[in-house]
UniProtKB/TrEMBL annotation:
InterPro entries: 6-PGluconate_DH-like_C_sf, 6PGD_dom2, G3P_DH_NAD-dep_N, NAD(P)-bd_dom_sf, Opine/Lysopine_DH, Opine_DH. PANTHER family: BLR6086 PROTEIN, OPINE DEHYDROGENASE DOMAIN-CONTAINING PROTEIN. The keyword tRNA processing does not apply. Pfam families: NAD_Gly3P_dh_N (PF01210), Octopine_DH (PF02317). This is NADP transhydrogenase subunit alpha. It comes from the Bacteria. The keyword Oxidoreductase applies. GO terms for biological process: glycerol-3-phosphate catabolic process. One of its GO terms (molecular function) is oxidoreductase activity, acting on the CH-OH group of donors, NAD or NADP as acceptor.
C-alpha cells in the first residue's frame, strides 16, 4: 500500500456508495466500485465515471465498476461497504473468499452490531477472520442518486466516529482511512458506535408517524415538517430508551440532540429545535412509500438489536417495541424475527462482563 494513496473498493452503487466513490475519485484516490447487480453500473461503465453535484462538484473518473467481487477487492487497501445494513450478512458471505489480512473493511455505517454480525459470518465461512472489521457510527454523507451515473451530495458531516471489532486496531485503521477522510475520529468501541446510531431514532418513527402524508405522495421536508411537536416527543422517548440500554452495558451514549451538534454543528434547546437548526437536512424530502430502508433497514438492523439487548439486560423498551410491532403490522412481516437479535448473533448467553469483552474484541463470540 502506498502510504499516501491507499486504494479504495466501494461496495454499493446506491445513494451512499455513488457519493463515496465519486468523492474519493475527485480527491485523487484510485477507486473500484462493486455492486451485486450490474444494472446500476452500466451508465458508470459507459462514461467511466460519475457526475457529482452539491457540496462536491465535478466528474469523478471510475475506471473499475464491476459485479465481480474478486476483481473489485484485489489490491484494495480499504473496503468501504455502503449498502443497507440488511445486506451486510450477504456481502460478508460474498467477499469472504477474497478478503486479506492486511485489508480494512469499513461498514458505512454498521447500524447496530454490524461489525459483530460481519465477523460471525466470516467465522461461519471459515474465512480470514484476521481482517480488520470496522464500523462507523453514521454515514458520512447526506446524498441522493439523481439519475443514471449521477449523484448529489447535500452535506458531508463534520465528524464521524469509527471503531474496529478489535478496539486496539482503531488507530491503525484510522491512519489509513483518514488519508482520504479526516472527518473520521476514534470511537471507543463497536458498542459505542452501535448505540450512537441516531438513524434508529429519526428514520423509522418519522416514516411510521407520517405514513398518511407519505402515502398521499405529498412532498414535504422529512426532518423539518415530519418532526412535528407531537412526533418529536415520541422521538425523545425513543431516544431515552436507546440511552438506557447503552447505560446497562456501561456505555454513555450521546443523546440525539448532542449528536446533531457533534455531527452537524446544529444546536437547539430541544431535539426538535436542533433538527430544525441543521442546514444539512434542508431540501431532503420524505419518501413516497413506507416500505423503504428507513423502515426495512433501520428496524431490523437498529431498533431490533437494541430492543433484543434490552430484553437480555432487563431494560424495558416499550416505544421501540411499539415501533417494531406497528411496522410489522403495516408491512405484513415479522421484523423482530428478521432482525439482528442477540440469539441470531450467538451472544444471547453472554453476561455483562462477556459482552463488554466482546465489545473491545477480547472475546470473539
Amino acid at each position: 500500500m502506498s502510504k499516501e494513496k491507499p486504494v479504495f473498493c466501494v461496495i454499493g452503487a446506491g445513494h451512499g456508495g455513488m457519493a463515496m466513490a465519486a468523492h474519493l475519485s475527485i480527491l485523487g484516490f484510485e477507486v473500484r466500485l462493486f455492486n451485486r447487480t450490474s444494472e446500476r453500473l452500466k451508465p458508470i461503465q459507459i462514461r467511466r465515471g460519475i457526475d457529482v453535484t452539491g457540496e462536491i462538484t465535478g466528474f469523478a473518473r471510475i475506471e473499475t465498476a464491476t459485479d465481480n467481487p474478486e476483481e473489485a477487492l484485489s489490491g484494495a487497501d480499504v473496503v468501504m461497504i455502503a449498502i443497507p445494513a440488511t445486506g451486510h450478512r450477504s456481502i460478508a458471505a460474498i467477499t469472504a473468499p477474497f478478503l486479506k489480512s492486511d485489508q480494512y473493511v469499513v461498514l458505512n455505517p454498521g447500524r447496530t452490531f454490524g461489525a459483530i454480525e460481519f465477523h460471525q459470518v466470516l467465522k461461519s465461512k471459515d474465512a480470514n477472520t484476521d481482517v480488520t472489521i470496522a464500523e462507523t457510527q453514521t454515514f458520512l454523507y447526506a446524498s441522493r442518486v439523481t439519475g443514471p451515473g449521477q449523484v448529489k451530495i447535500f452535506r458531508i458531516k463534520n465528524s464521524v466516529p469509527l471503531a474496529t471489532f478489535q478496539a486496539h486496531r482503531i488507530p491503525g485503521c484510522l491512519d489509513v482511512v483518514r488519508k482520504a477522510y479526516p472527518q473520521f475520529v476514534p470511537g471507543d468501541n463497536i458498542f459505542k458506535t452501535s448505540f450512537n446510531n441516531i438513524g434508529a431514532i429519526f428514520h423509522p418513527a418519522l416514516v411510521l408517524l407520517n405514513a398518511g402524508w407519505i402515502e398521499d405522495q405529498s412532498d414535504f421536508e422529512f426532518y423539518f415538517q415530519g418532526a412535528s411537536p407531537s412526533v418529536s416527543k415520541i422521538l425523545d422517548k425513543l431516544d431515552a430508551e436507546r440511552v438506557a440500554v447503552a447505560a446497562a452495558l456501561g456505555i454513555q451514549a450521546m443523546t440525539a440532540r448532542d449528536w446533531l451538534y457533534f455531527a452537524y454543528g446544529a444546536a437547539g434547546k430541544t431535539l426538535r429545535e436542533s433538527m430544525r437548526a441543521n442546514s444539512g437536512y434542508h431540501g431532503i424530502l420524505a419518501p413516497h412509500q413506507t416500505e423503504m430502508r428507513y423502515v426495512t433497514e433501520d428496524i431490523p438492523c437498529s431498533i431490533v438489536p437494541m430492543s433484543s439487548l434490552g430484553r437480555q439486560m432487563n431494560i424495558p423498551t416499550p416505544v421501540m417495541d411499539s415501533i417494531i410491532t406497528l411496522a410489522s403490522a403495516m408491512h405484513g412481516r415479522d421484523y423482530y424475527a428478521e432482525g439482528r437479535t442477540m440469539e441470531k448473533m450467538g451472544i444471547d448467553k453472554m453476561d455483562l462482563k462477556q459482552l463488554r469483552l466482546l465489545g473491545i474484541g477480547e472475546m470473539q463470540g
